[in-house]
Amino acid sequence: MTSDPLSQNIQATEIASIINAIDRGIFVTNEAGICTYINNTALELLGYKRENCIGQKMHSLIHFKYKNGESYREKDCFICKAKPLILDTDLPEDEVFWKANGSWFYINYSSNAIIEGGTFKGTVVTFTDITEQKVRETAIVESESRYKYIFENNPSPMCIWDFETLMIVECNAEILNKYGYTREEFLKLNIREVRPPEDIDLINAATENESVYGEVHKRVWRHKKKNGELMNVEVIGHLITFNGRKASLVIINDVTDKIRAEFELKTSEEKLRTATQIAMLGYWQKDIAGNNHYWSDELYNIWGVSRANFELNQESFFERVHPQDKQYFINEQAAMISGREEINFQYRIILPNGDIKWLQEIGKIVNDENGKPLIFRGTVQDITEQKLLSLSLEESNLRYDLVTQATSDAIWDWDILKGTIYLGGGYQRIFGHETTGLNESVRNFTDLLHPEDKAAVIRGIYKVVEGKGTNWYDEYRYLKADGIYAYVEDRGFVIRDDTGRAVRMVGAMQDITQHKHEEQRLKLLESVVTNTNDAILITEAEPVGEPGPRIIYINNAFAEMTGYTEEEIIGKTPRILQGPKSDQKELKRLSRALHEYQPCEITTINYKKNGEEFWVNFSVSPVADQTGRVTHFIAIERDVSERKKAENELKLFTEDLFKRNKELQQFGYIISHNLRSPVANIMGIANLLELDKDDPDTVDLCTRSLKTSINSLDGVIKDLSKILSITDGSADLIKETVNLSELIDSITTDIKPIIDHAGAVVENNTAQIIVNLHKAYLYSIFINLISNSIKYKSACTPIIKVSAFEQDQRIIIKVEDNGIGIDLEKHREDLFKPYKRFETSVEGKGLGLFLIKSHVEALNGKLELESELGKGTTFTIIFPGQ
């Protein structure tokens, strides 16, 4: 049954509209990689018009090079491969899409092959721009390093324990110092083992389940050190996921001294209240002249004397007044006598035992019936304790005011009975609110709590106040003056009277907004750093010189790339990865950057744990703390061995191609020159024949000349064929086992007539050296060398020595003669060029040395020559070990 064409057209239009509405770029290529369709989102991401893409090869248009500008071969292109690929795959770091304006962006893509009837018809590619994601990932890596550093170097004792097993799984150095354990010992403990036996049931109940424990657990516990000493600690625990398991991150605050001080303070205040209820007053009278006339018994007790041994007069009185207060006392007494009706002042006296007392003296004039002054009378109170307490209180208040101004917390003091609250100077600095008005009523303070948190916070406070507890803790949101809610960590301490009733509560608020945000970021960073494919290495910042900064963190990708485990690499220096072939120039550049605390990117050879070499590209960045001091370095590393291998192969190929091209160009000039002469002769003979073709003598002469020219031309062409068969690699270089001694003997047999005619001596000292090379090339090399030694012999008997030996996994062959030699100073540059002759008295073409060198290099060997005029020549051939 066939469908309606109109319906099909409507369906196609709907599908096209749907595809154009998708927020991912989509394009389709045929089997040759030519674009046949592209949606609007792809055009927007790439910046092209549709007509710029349709009919174009997409690899050459948007995916033809890396972000650094290096060419990206089509055969390596993921998108061009004719098979389905894994969906939603981030391409490697250097692979990007290029926009029409010449900029690039990172991509997340999927590619699916179009198969019809089992035949590949093309590819459908979808992609999105993930450049911003890449930037965020880089920021996450940096934040993660700060998170780990904060945990390990936190001045507060911290640890993490598994919620299911209660085993301690991580800790920082401060908690080890506090409890007296080594790291190995501490990580073997269960949290029950740091409690006294009588508290085990309490910890079991508190960790029964997550609901009982709470997302944030705060409580004062008794903990036991390794030496058995007990201490009171405030534990703040946060439920987290650690290594895929539910755990608690715990911060420990030793409050042993604080609890002891609170107890002593309470006792001292009770004594003080009792002392202030007892008013020890002494009564006195003086006459108008100022002489003491009467003291009560209490006054004698205050002065530490008795009526029996103390004569009460002005002289004995002033003897006991403190020297620094005598003049002050005299002035006050004179003012009273001169007419002031009342006096009220303080002074000091010295007791017989040397003690000093503060006294409060109040006095007034008593007039007679006529209104004339009769006597002076008044009271003296021992205010020594109150005075000393007052001085201490003034000092304490001063210290309290200074603390509230210096601390980063907002100190508060709530008078529960009056319903008023005092807020320290830090409150306005942190939250921006004026304290005027807020201090009048606690309601003004609580009205600024976040509506969603207010009821729970107030309920929690009153639960402690109305119960028997002394410590309160909560986290909530608090409205700042700028209208933004801050996350707050608040701690309070309840002060109770003798009946246990809460009368006062003091505490401190701390803005933890940044900490909250950092906590979320760090959790995300931890996941990214752990799971990224790039190797990540973190070291301390010092020492940059010897022996190098210590490694403090590696991720799984680093361990897989190098073969080192975390236990093997932590505490070591990155120089453990360097070796003989590491690029010292690059490493020195890196060292300079580290000394200057600058980021740096280099590429060098590193060594795995098993000694295997690999090329690595890594970028190093400094990490600074809040003060700007660089504390760590972060390195992100990638194995670029395959890329380097491809670069080296391309370089060698290019060098070889350039060399061969230059040789062929030079050879072309020579061949052109050598061909010109026989061709010119042939053309001349042809012209001569045309002019005198009926003359038999002319025909005969031309025939002989033509034969000679043709033979010369044939020789040039054969030389050309022979040279090209070597330089273009067309010869079939089949390797076979060759005994050098037997090969030399075979050559001397083949040219025996030449050797005998010259009276030459050939010494074969190749012993039993066996090589696995192309035999025909070896034959050509040695027959040319021996023949040349005979051809260019001197007046004395020709002696040719052929020797061979193995050295440093190489085979070295020497051919020495005592011939006429070569002037190397004059001919060194032309030694191995074709058609170059250095001795014209001997017939030859000048191809011998060229062919010898070409054959040696075709066999991956190296040819060296030493010669001196009149003394002979030595050829040295070096082949790699077999």
What coarse outline follows from CA principal-axis ratios? elongated
Strand order of the largest sheet: 2-1-7-6-3
> How much β-strand is present in the residues?
25-35%
Q: Averaging pLDDT over every residue, what do you get?
A: 80
Return the structural class. Answer: alpha+beta
Q: Main β-sheet, in a few words?
A: 5 strands, antiparallel
Helical residues, percent: 25-40%
Low-confidence stretches: 84-91, 272-278
Please provide the count of β strands: 34
Molecular structure report:
With 882 residues, this protein is α+β, with helices and mostly antiparallel strands. 40% of the residues lie in helices and 28% in strands. The chain contains 28 helices and 34 strands. β20 (471-479) and β21 (485-496) form a beta hairpin. Residues 84-91 and 272-278 have low confidence and may be disordered.
Q: Could you provide a short overview of the structure?
A:
This protein has 882 residues and is α+β, with helices and mostly antiparallel strands. Helix 22 packs antiparallel against helix 23, helix 24 crosses helix 26 and helix 26 packs antiparallel against helix 28 (848-858).
What labels would you give this structure?
alpha+beta; 5-stranded antiparallel β-sheet
